[in-house]
Amino acid sequence: MSDFGALLWLIPALPLLGAVLAALFGATRGLKDWAHAPVVLTAALSCACAIAVAARLAGSTDPVTFAKSSNPDDRLHWFSVDSGTARLAADFVLSADHLAGTMLLAVTFIGFWIVVFSVGYMKGSPGFARYFAIVSLFLASMTLLVLADNFLLLFAGWEGVGLCSYLLVGYWHHKPSASDAARKAFLVTRLGDVGLIVGMFLLWLMAGRESMDYDEIFSVAAQMLADHPVMFPAACLLVLCGAVGKSAQIPLYVWLPDAMEGPTPVSALIHAATMVTAGVYLLARCAPLFVVVPGVQLTVATIGAATALLAAFIALTQHDLKRVLAYSTVSQIGFMFLAVGCAGPAVPALAVTAAIFHLFTHAFFKAVLFLSSGSVMHAMHDVIDMREFGGLRKVLPVTHWTFLAGALALAGIPLFSGFWSKDMILEATLEAGHAARFGSAYLVLFGIALATALMTAFYTFRAYYRTFWGELRMPEGAHPNEPWVMTLPLIVLGVGAVFAGILAEPFTHWFSNFLTTSPHLVRVSSGQTMDHHLNWPLMLASSAAALIGVGIAHYLYKSRPGAAEKIAEAAPTPYYLSLNKLYVDEIYTLLFVQPLELLAGMCRLVEAVVYDLARLIAMVPYYAGRGFRWAQNGLVQFYALAMVLMVAGLLGYFVLFAK
Amino acid sequence: MISVPHYLAVGAILFCLGLVGFLARRNLIVMFLSAELMLQGVALNFVAFSRYHGNLHGQVFTLFVIAVAACEAGIALALFLMLYRRKRSLDVSLWQSLREPGVDETTDPEPLPPGPKEEPLPRLPPAGVEPVREERQYV
């Protein structure tokens, strides 16, 4: 296995090399415009390595590991602390089981095509090399996050992707809105990350202060719950807090829509396909911990369903194409959280597979949707407001078809990829609804999910009809064009969006068979396996929801233009609530930002008082000294004379008066 | 009989002469010599007291004073040479620039008379070239 282990460390190392090379190219005059070359090349090689690893995983149940050894001394130490009673070691140990292998495939494959798309999209942009260096660094961090075999290494990757996200959201840093959005994204996800690291160390503490390795901690999950009935659920909730921050769920979802200030390929790669799903990956990875605490699982599912509903509601009325997609990302990740939260009441293998399957198909169709909107934006001279353009299907034919493919998948139209994964999530939720504990709660969540599916179909096709149908309208300065370097990734990912679902799961069961052979999932499911069957009533219900949503969108935005405005006038309260994003940003400003600003103002006041007091004291010697300035005239003999007179005076005093 | 007060008187006279010279003269080298004179006045006191107390403490001090004075002479004369090269003069009142900003320069109401005209220093011929010989006439 050693050669596969070597492939494993190449997967993050190659993009890292690409990042360094791109940065070096950017610093030279001649190679500046070729900074994308090493990044494209290393991304392709990294993808090839990931495919090789996945092929090896398909043939066996053992994970591929690198530098893993039961003897701690044989491992590659990043750092370690050993105090006799407690041991904390961050080892550079990589391990790819089937869960990580699936993530790796999605990350590197989609990452590669998005890098190719970026070559066309970012052409001529200032900071071309910087862009590619950071994207490559992101790929390295993300693969490290996925491949990590212990919590500390995962956290390193976790923070790495957070940093790259910050840098890329603020890519156009001279724009105040972009730098504000970057700061917001960084600070809000930091809130979650604090929770994650505290949770990690609580787990380490409860698991015997020995190791941060997944295996060590997961194997004692039930024991930990028995020993610490309060602290263990708290630790799980803290880990969940990290996932919520990174994956933009309630209450920390506010950063993701603003993060659309970054370049569109970045929105596709980081803020739709890969980084934001890291939270789902973390929860799937930590499933052995979560399944033993049903209350926490219900919290996970509730957060997911609530976020899905709320984000879909906001997406109904947004005018900015990218914002519609951003809210739909939040909503779809909510679906994944819902699925992960069903593990326990439902068979964990089914629930986790549903979540990761949705993650996988979502990565494809959301990437193609974002890249298509990027293509629209590129052609429309950086205008992304749907009120400014329309009827683009004639001038952007390829983009039109790829966007349609993505939209059909996102809306959950039968046979397209999103349909199958969403169906699996609904099935998992329904199964959890039959559980003895919290069953009725899960049934409510099922209802919410079905309603959200309808809304999803509606807002997706609203965006589609408004962008590509109706009469042709374009903003000033638009130059519709589709260079091949942009259309090729669109077509590849579009084909993936259409076929990834039907090929991988409903009839072949490739995906679930691959994923559930993971020793990780086998152990979580404790013997239960998922049964493969097509649940016809459920499929009918979800198809009906999707088709009704599309039908409403078709009626309002294609058959009867103007009908939508009448509805908005008829029901102004929900319309403005949705248009203004439920005023959540304003509420957060009122609740958190303004008190903090007030506190900062008070601190400033105190500081000013202390500072001025210090200045006042410093003034005393200054003004006292001004009276004697004349004495320092630079004449040596004057100083000597003054000295002599002073000594003479002093001596005279002692001789005449001192006793 | 010459007793301690006599020595002290001579020492005090030497010290005062030096002090007056230091304060009144403006030539750097003369000021330096005056400072040396003050030192010697003090040294004389030390020696006198050493003799009076019958121990060697004062003499040790004197040796120190002489050694320090020798060092001082080396440094001070080197500094004077550098200062002289800058301004072609040994007048101490030319060096007033280390004064508080805003305080005017002190000018002398009676400037010193110009010194003697400087004689050019002898120059050596460039190395490796045979100097031009002056044909001397021998009688």
Describe this structure in words.
The complex is a heterodimer of chains A (659) and B (139). Chain A is globular. With 659 residues, chain A is mainly α. In chain A, the strands form two sheets. In chain A, strands 1-4 form a two-stranded antiparallel ribbon. The mean pLDDT of chain A is 89. Chain A contains 27 helices and four strands. Helices cover 56% and strands 0% of the residues of chain B. In chain B, α1 runs antiparallel to α2 (28-53). Chain B is extended. The termini of chain B are far apart. The chains are: A mainly alpha (659), B mainly alpha (139).
Which SSEs are present, and which pair or pack?
The complex is a heterodimer of chains A (659) and B (139).
Chain A (H helix, E strand, L loop, with lengths): L1 H26 L8 H23 L5 E3 L10 E6 L4 E5 L2 E3 L1 H24 L6 H20 L3 H19 L6 H31 L7 H5 L2 H7 L3 H16 L8 H4 L5 H10 L4 H8 L1 H4 L3 H22 L5 H21 L6 H32 L17 H15 L5 H17 L5 H30 L15 H21 L5 H7 L2 H7 L10 H24 L3 H8 L1 H8 L4 H43 L9 H21 L3
Antiparallel strand pairs in A: 1-4, 2-3
Helix pairs in contact in A: 1-2, 1-4, 2-3, 2-4, 3-4, 3-11, 3-16, 3-20, 4-5, 5-6, 5-11, 6-9, 9-12, 11-16, 14-15, 14-19, 15-16, 15-18, 15-19, 16-17, 16-18, 16-20, 16-21, 17-19, 17-20, 18-19, 18-20, 18-23, 19-23, 24-25
Chain B lengths: L3 H21 L3 H26 L3 H31 L52
Helix pairs in contact in B: 1-2, 2-3
Radius of gyration based on Cα positions of chain A: 30 Å
**Number of helical regions of chain B:** 3
The total of helices of chain A stands at: 27
| Class per helix and strand makeup of chain B | mainly alpha
Task: Kindly state the percentage of residues in helix of chain A.
Answer: over 70%
Low-confidence stretches of chain A: none
Distance between the termini of chain A: 99 Å
Largest sheet of chain B: none
**Which quaternary structure do these chains form?**
heterodimer
Low-confidence runs of chain B: none
The number of E-state strands of chain A comes to: 4
The pair of chains with the biggest contact is: A-B, 12 and 17 residues
> What fraction of residues of chain A sit in β-strands?
under 5%
Largest β-sheet summary of chain A: 2 strands, antiparallel
- Structural class by helix and strand composition of chain A: mainly alpha
